[in-house]
């Protein structure tokens, strides 16, 4: 740490790693599958040790999907697909950028501060965006369904889903007819 | 999965100035390490995006190693 060629690049990476851990945990993937390690250019033996340890750790965890639980693979795949889209969403990116800027200004890259900042400022925006994406994927794939079905499929709380459905219908991306929701477009 | 042994697919994001150089040095000095890591060189670990990592898992990576 502190040896970065670009001065603060590795501190910025700590913020990304933290949001990534929280997101993976949220979608049901073991967060230990993603690690952030430091090895300077002169530390080849240390690098070899880190890689060896990490590869055996992943081997112990097992393959992605089947190791996270029975028949979880399809649902994790959907979460990840929606997650990729959510990670590109403007709201999430501005939240992340703002947090990174604030932390850089304060100059305090304490892991606890990063973790709290991410939990409070970035993660909620990401989760909302991910669920919104999943609702749209869900409606496009299975056709009209009730909000309870969507909640069950996406693993979101029914109140949370209801709120997001309202927002989406205001943007005219979904439509309600009777007790069923329809996707518009895609 | 070959012959019942689980060989994880691991994606590595290595910083050009640190970990990538360390990996290079490890190769030159003939250190042995597991061949499961496929490397993507980035100019800085700060360049890595949440999207890259999620996409890696979405494409079937069993792990992502970020080295700076």
Care to describe what's here?
The complex is a heterodimer of chains A (186) and B (68). Chain A has one domain (9-143). Chain A is 65% helix and 6% strand. Chain A contains seven helices and three strands. In chain A, strands 2-3 form a two-stranded antiparallel ribbon. In chain A, a hairpin with a 2-residue loop joins strand 2 and strand 3. Chain A is flat, with a radius of gyration of 19 Å. Chain B has helices at residues 19-28, 50-58; strands spanning 10-15, 37-42, 63-67. Chain B has one domain (10-67). A three-stranded parallel beta sheet of chain B has the order 2-1-3, sandwiched between helices. The chains are: A mainly alpha (186), B alpha/beta (68).
The greatest interface here is: A-B, 55 and 43 residues
Biggest pleated sheet of chain B: 3 strands, parallel
The chain-level structural class of chain B is alpha/beta
Q: What are the segments of chain A in which pLDDT stays under 50 over at least 5 consecutive residues?
A: none
What is the straight-line distance between the termini of chain B? 29 Å
Structural class estimated from helices and strands of chain A: mainly alpha
The gist of it:
The complex is a heterodimer of chains A (186) and B (68). Chain A is 65% helix and 6% strand.
What are the SSEs and their pairings?
The complex is a heterodimer of chains A (about 190) and B (about 70).
Chain A: H1 9-26, E1 34-37, H2 44-61, H3 73-87, H4 90-106, H5 111-142, H6 147-154, H7 158-170, E2 174-177, E3 180-183
Antiparallel strand pairs in A: 2-3
Helix pairs in contact in A: 1-5, 3-5, 4-5, 5-7, 6-7
Chain B: E1 10-15, H1 19-28, E2 37-42, H2 50-58, E3 63-67
Parallel strand pairs in B: 1-2, 1-3
């Amino acid at each position: 740490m502190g040896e970065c060629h670009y001065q603060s690049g590795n501190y910025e990476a700590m913020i990304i790693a933290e949001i990534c851990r929280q997101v993976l945990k949220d979608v049901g993937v073991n967060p230990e599958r993603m690690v952030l390690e430091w090895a300077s250019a002169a530390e080849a033996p240390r690098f070899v040790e880190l890689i060896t340890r990490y590869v055996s750790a992943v081997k112990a965890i097992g393959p992605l999907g089947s190791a996270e639980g029975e028949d979880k693979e399809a649902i994790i795949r959907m979460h990840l697909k929606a997650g990729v889209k959510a990670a590109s969403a403007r709201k999430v990116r501005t939240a992340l950028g703002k947090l990174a800027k604030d932390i850089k200004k304060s100059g305090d890259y304490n892991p606890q501060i990063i973790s709290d900042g991410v939990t409070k400022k970035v993660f909620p925006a990401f989760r909302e965006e991910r669920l919104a994406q999943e609702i749209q994927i869900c409606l496009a794939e299975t056709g009209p369904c009730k909000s309870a079905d969507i909640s069950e499929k996406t693993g979101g709380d029914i109140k949370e889903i209801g709120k997001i459905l309202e927002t989406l219908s205001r943007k005219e991306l979904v439509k309600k007819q009777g007790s069923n929701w329809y996707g518009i477009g895609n | 999965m070959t012959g019942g042994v689980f060989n994880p697919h691991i994606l590595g994001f290595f910083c050009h100035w640190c970990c990538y150089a360390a990996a290079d040095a490890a190769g030159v000095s003939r250190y042995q390490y597991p061949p499961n890591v496929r490397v993507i060189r980035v100019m800085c670990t700060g360049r890595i995006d949440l999207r890259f990592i999620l996409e890696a898992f979405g494409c079937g990576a069993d792990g992502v190693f970020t080295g700076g």
